[in-house]
Design brief:
Blueprint (H helix, E strand, L loop, with lengths): L6 H5 L4 E2 L10 E2 L11 H12 L19 H10 L11 H17 L9 E5 L2 H22 L8 E5 L4 H9 L3 E5 L10 H6 L5 E7 L11 H15 L5 E5 L6 H4 L12 E7 L11 E5 L11 E5 L2 E5 L9 H37 L4 E3 L8 E6 L8 H9 L7 E3 L8 E6 L6 H19 L30
Parallel strand pairs: 4-5, 4-6, 6-7, 7-8
Antiparallel strand pairs: 1-2, 3-9, 8-9, 10-11, 12-13, 13-15, 14-15
Helix pairs in contact: 3-10, 4-10, 10-12, 11-12
Length: 476
C-alpha cells in the first residue's frame, strides 16, 4: 500500500513533450511509465537536466548543514571511486585501509585515551552512526542486566527534545522508550539537572548533542557527565553518554580545544559525527567511534574476509559507495589540522558577523549568534504584527535564498524562528547579499496589514527540527 497518493494521480499523467528543435526522437516521453524503447543519451540528459533546473540552488540553501561545495580534486576522486562498493573489503582493500586511517585520525582528534584501542567505522551519515551508537548502548545495558539476573525488557534513552529525528527513529525501530526533556524558558537543550532527573535503572544512556539543529548550541557534555557521576555515587546507577556530534564534533576540536566534550570525559562511551557536514565532504558519509573495544559489544560486530584475514564491520547498510570515504581522507590530507581550523573559523566568523548585522535590524531579535556551531536563529521582535518568520522565509525564497522558518518544540512552541546555517563556501560576500535582500523585503512585509503565512505554510523545510512530544518520568 503506498504511503501517499502518487504524484501523477494528483497532477495528471500528461506525457513529457520534448522540444524537437534541440532533441532527437522521440519527442514525447512518458513521465511515470518506462519508455518502450531507447533514446539518445543527449536526449535523456537534456530531459533530466531541464527538470532539475527547478531545484533550489544548493549554495544558497541556508537550511542544510550538508556540504554543498568541494574542490575539483575531491570531486574527481569521488568520480573515480563512485563504482567501488565499500562493503567489498577484499576487492577494494585500499579503500578499506583509508577508512581505517580516518577512524584513527578521528580517535586522536577526539582524544581517545588509547587511539589504537578506539574502534569505529564509516556510515552513510550521522543518522546511521547515531543508531549504531544507540544499539551499542542498548546491548551493553542488556548484557549487564542479564548478568545481574534482572529483567532487560524496558530500556529507555534520555535526551533533550531538541535531538535530531534519527533518535526518535532509533527509539521506535529498536524498542527503546525515548525520554525527552522539554525546553523551558531560555533553556533550549538538555541540562545536567534535567538529564539526571529522568534516569533510572533501565536507562541505557544519555544523548548529549554537540550542536543542536534548533539553535546551533552545544549541550554541556562535561556538566552532564559530572551530574551522572554524582548520580552513580548516590544510587549506584552507571549511565554512559553518547555524544551526537553530527555538526559540532568537526567544529569543537579546531575552534574550542579547551572544551571537554569528547573521550577526555570518561563517561563518554561513543561519538557520532557527519563527514558530509562540517567534515566538508559531499553527502554520503558519517562516522561512529567508541572509546575502546569494551564499549562496542562483540556480538554486534560481523567479520568479513580481508586480505586473507578478518576485518570487523558494524553497519545498518550494506552496499554503499566508497567515494565519500576517499573524499574524507583527501580532506584530512589536504587541509590538515590547521586547514580545518581556518575553514571552520571562517565559517564561524561569517556566522557571527552576519548575525550581528541582523541584530541591528529593529524587526528582529537574536536567539543565538553562531559562536558555537556556525548556525544561528532569530525571531521577529515582539510587537510586530505585520509579518511572521514564515513570511520572511517566503520573501527570501523569491530571491533564491532557502532560509527555514519553524517553531520550537515543547514547551516553547510559541517561539517561531528563522535559522541560518553557514558552511564552507558561504562567504562574507554572500552574507552581505543576504542582508541586502533582507533590507529589500522588509518594507514590503511591514506594509502588510497582517501576516500572510503561518507554520502550516512551512512544509517539510525543518531539517532536523521536527516536533516531538516529551515523556517525563521519575526514577524507578
Amino acid at each position: 500500500m503506498p504511503l501517499k497518493q502518487p504524484r501523477h494521480a494528483r497532477r495528471g499523467s500528461r506525457d513529457l513533450e520534448v522540444n524537437p528543435i534541440f532533441s532527437r526522437e522521440p519527442v514525447r516521453v512518458p513521465r511515470y511509465v518506462m519508455p518502450d524503447g531507447q533514446m539518445e543519451p543527449d536526449t535523456a540528459y537534456q530531459i533530466v537536466h531541464d527538470e532539475l533546473m527547478l531545484d533550489g540552488n544548493a549554495r544558497l540553501n541556508l537550511a542544510t548543514f550538508v556540504t554543498t561545495w568541494a574542490e575539483p580534486q575531491a570531486q574527481r576522486l569521488m568520480a573515480e571511486c563512485a563504482e567501488k562498493n565499500m562493503i567489498d573489503k577484499d576487492e577494494y582493500p585500499q579503500t578499506a585501509e583509508l577508512e581505517m586511517r580516518c577512524v584513527d585520525m578521528l580517535a586522536r582528534l577526539w582524544h581517545a585515551e588509547d587511539p589504537h584501542r578506539a574502534t569505529g567505522c564509516s556510515t552513510t551519515g550521522s543518522s546511521e552512526a547515531a543508531m549504531l551508537g544507540g544499539l551499542a548502548l542498548k546491548r551493553r545495558w542488556r548484557h549487564r542486566r542479564l548478568a545481574e539476573g534482572r529483567p532487560a525488557d524496558r530500556p529507555n534513552l534520555v535526551m533533550g527534545i531538541n535531538v535530531q529525528i534519527c533518535w526518535e527513529k532509533f527509539a521506535n525501530y529498536f524498542d527503546v522508550e525515548p525520554r525527552y526533556v522539554p525546553m523551558e524558558g531560555d533553556r533550549y537543550h538538555l541540562s545536567p539537572e534535567t538529564a539526571v532527573e529522568l534516569c533510572d535503572e533501565n536507562t541505557i544512556g544519555v544523548v548529549a548533542v554537540l550542536g543542536s539543529t534548533f539553535d546551533g548550541s552545544y549541550e554541556p557534555v562535561a556538566g552532564i557527565a559530572a551530574a551522572l557521576d554524582d548520580l552513580q555515587a548516590r544510587t549506584g546507577l552507571d549511565v554512559p553518554i553518547h555524544v551526537d556530534g553530527a555538526s559540532g564534533a568537526m567544529i569543537a576540536p579546531f575552534l574550542d580545544p579547551d572544551l571537554h566534550w569528547d573521550f577526555r570525559v570518561p563517561r563518554v562511551a561513543s561519538i557520532n559525527a557527519s563527514g558530509h557536514k562540517y567534515g566538508l565532504v559531499m553527502p554520503g558519509v558519517g562516522w561512529a567511534l567508541w572509546r575502546d573495544f569494551g564499549a562496542l559489544p562483540e556480538d554486534l560486530v560481523f567479520h568479513v574476509n580481508y586480505l586473507g584475514g578478518q576485518m570487523p564491520t558494524f553497519a545498518l547498510n550494506f552496499s554503499r559507495p566508497g567515494a565519500q570515504v576517499v573524499a574524507q581522507y583527501y580532506n584530512f590530507l589536504r587541509l590538515g589540522f590547521d586547514g580545518y581550523r581556518r575553514v571552520q573559523q571562517t565559517s564561524r566568523d561569517v556566522a557571527t558577523r552576519l548575525s550581528g548585522e541582523i541584530a541591528k535590524l529593529d524587526q528582529f531579535e537574536l536567539i543565538t549568534d553562531g559562536s558555537q556551531v556556525p548556525a544561528f536563529v532569530f525571531r521577529v521582535r515582539e510587537g510586530n504584527d505585520a509579518f511572521t518568520v514564515f513570511d520572511v522565509s517566503a520573501a527570501l525564497r523569491e530571491r533564491g535564498w532557502l532560509v527555514p522558518a519553524y517553531t520550537f518544540p515543547e514547551n516553547r512552541t510559541d517561539l517561531a524562528v528563522l535559522r541560518v546555517v553557514v558552511r564552507n563556501g558561504f562567504s562574507h560576500d554572500l552574507a552581505d547579499l543576504l542582508v541586502e535582500d533582507l533590507h529589500r523585503v522588509l518594507p514590503h512585509l511591514e506594509g502588510q496589514r497582517e501576516p500572510h503565512r503561518t507554520a502550516d505554510d512551512a512544509g517539510g523545510f525543518a531539517h532536523g527540527t521536527e516536533i516531538k512530544t516529551s515523556r517525563r518520568h521519575g526514577r524507578g
